[in-house]
Specification:
11 helices, 27% strand, four-stranded antiparallel beta sheet, six-stranded mixed beta sheet, elongated, single chain
Length: 313
């Protein structure tokens, strides 16, 4: 449904996106994670035909972005990371305006507008001026606007940006419903935990490159297989390094002022053996226990080591 082949964008000597190869299957949700400046917005802008690639190719719904931009635009609903509203339009008028832009008219526009407002829980705001809506309501209205022409693909750039916790929850509910409808979606964010709740796959962008891709289900499976341990003890770094380097179940560790954080793949019995060996090595352990494993830290650690990644295709 969405595919890129060495997609690249340069601004002078600056490479914003570098040889991006990506495939998003029909009906799946792909989350794009990365810090500001990683290339996420430029990537989505090229897919939405708003930015011309320097070289490489991109296809959306079977149409090549550079050769058939009109067909691509009719196939997508694009929500940028920032958007303006029209002060003198009500919610309903706002949707009618965009429906007209896409050739959706008359009874169909009226019916689709009513259905979508109910769908995003804005049915009571039909006569409200758009600029009077809260940020969260405006975001949900933008999603409704993206759906007025019933596109096959949704491209959403930081849809939860600037939202309070309650609005984020409401937005995730809407995104889950879109997923259930079988819409193909690409969603960018810098918050991995939120993406993991609605995505099938997650890709990490760094410096304009897609550095890792992982299936969300694989990540969740790994949460059960890998444990984060906190060992509170004071010891010289050289001693920690000597002892931990000899432990095959210790996949990663971070030295702290009062101890060490471990990523550990062993079962409880092996944890007990690890504790025993630490004490035998002369490390005065004060506390030894598990910590909750969050999907963000797991993704960062495991993708760097290649444990749950596959080719970005």
């Amino acid at each position: 449904m969405v595919q890129t082949q060495n997609l690249t964008k340069k601004y002078g000597r600056t490479v914003a996106v570098n040889r991006l190869n990506l495939t998003v299957r029909q009906g799946s949700v792909f989350g794009l994670i990365g810090e500001n400046g990683a290339g996420k917005t430029t990537t989505l802008s090229m897919l939405a035909t708003l930015t011309v690639p320097s070289f490489g190719r991109a296809f959306v719904n079977g149409f090549e972005v550079c050769k058939h931009p009109h067909d691509v635009r009719m196939s997508i609903g694009y929500m940028p990371d920032s958007f303006g509203v029209y002060d003198d339009l009500t919610v309903t008028e706002y949707l009618y305006f965009y429906a007209e832009c896409y050739g959706v008219k008359g009874a169909l526009a009226k019916r689709r507008s009513a259905d979508l407002l109910e769908w995003v829980d804005l049915q009571d705001q039909r006569g409200t001026y758009v600029n009077a809506l809260s940020r969260g309501m405006q975001q949900r209205l933008e999603l409704a606007r993206c759906l007025m022409h019933d596109p096959q693909v949704l491209i959403l750039d930081e849809p939860a940006s600037g939202l309070d916790p309650r609005s984020r929850i409401e937005l995730r509910r809407v995104l889950r419903r879109l997923r259930e409808l079988g819409k193909t979606m690409i969603i960018s964010s810098h918050i991995l935990n939120e993406l993991s709740e609605v995505s099938d796959e997650i890709g990490m962008m760094r410096g304009g490159e897609l550095s890792a891709v992982a299936a969300v289900e694989a990540l969740k499976d790994q949460i059960g297989a890998y444990r984060r341990l906190w060992v509170q003890a004071t010891a010289k770094p050289e001693l920690w390094q000597t002892v931990l380097a000899a432990e095959p179940q210790v996949l990663d560790y971070t030295l702290r002022l009062q101890g060490v954080e471990l990523v550990f793949s062993g079962v409880l019995e092996e944890q007990a053996e690890l504790l025993k060996r630490l004490i035998q090595a002369g490390i005065p352990v004060i506390h030894f226990g598990e910590q909750p494993t969050d999907i963000e830290s797991l993704f960062l650690r495991l993708t760097e080591r290649g444990r749950v990644t596959h080719d970005a295709r």
